[in-house]
């Protein structure tokens, strides 16, 4: 699951961007000025930040510099109304990974975010397999012992994270951080309920172990 922050001071555009990216199964947070964006970057590890350049309070250029200075793997897609080549060069020079000029097609934005997300970590195996379970990440299909398993976006994302952990334990907090956005209540039982539904759909014998006070794993 890819976690994205949209930083855009126009509420209507911010809402449209969040809706489009959520449809692509990204976990999406939103900030409406540069100061709010920096606060959220300090609290969460984002894979991609979609950053409007002309922001109030703290300019988008300064937000970009601050993100780059953290030396995290976060990628920055900068948005601007300026179409001049000089403006694009300036944005890339301060550390942006990609640049998109307004107006743009939402399909192109989604494609660019997908491309940047693939660069935030070493490439994962396209096929994840364990104990008769097979997940094809390219087609987003899941089978167990040859039987097709239909999952919701969140169930699929939790399963992928557990498989990527290769037998390691993931806490409920880690799964919340990777799969859900900032609007989720940190004290919710959403992870437990999602795992319970996932277990039911995967069938028996159960694959997902619960380790009290530790988290979940697929051994």
Task: Please characterize this protein's 3D structure.
- Helices cover 40% and strands 21% of the residues.
- The chain is of the alpha/beta class.
- The strands form 3 sheets. It has a 5-stranded parallel beta sheet, with helices on both faces.
- β8 (141-144) and β9 form a beta hairpin.
- α2 (34-43) packs parallel to α3 (60-69) and α6 (153-164) crosses α8.
- The chain is elongated and about 60 Å long.
Number of separate strands: 11
What's the helix count?
A: 8
Order of helices and strands: EHEHEHEHEHEEEEHHHEE
How is the largest sheet built, in terms of strand order? Answer: 2-1-3-4-5
Q: For the terminal residues, how far apart are their CA atoms?
A: 21 Å
Instruction: Estimate the mean pLDDT confidence.
Output: 86
Going by helix content, strand content and strand pairing, the class is alpha/beta
Multimer state: single chain
Strand content: 15-25%
Shape summary: elongated
Please compute the radius of gyration using only Cα atoms.
19 Å
Q: How much helix, percentage-wise, in residues? A: 25-40%
Largest β-sheet summary: 5 strands, parallel
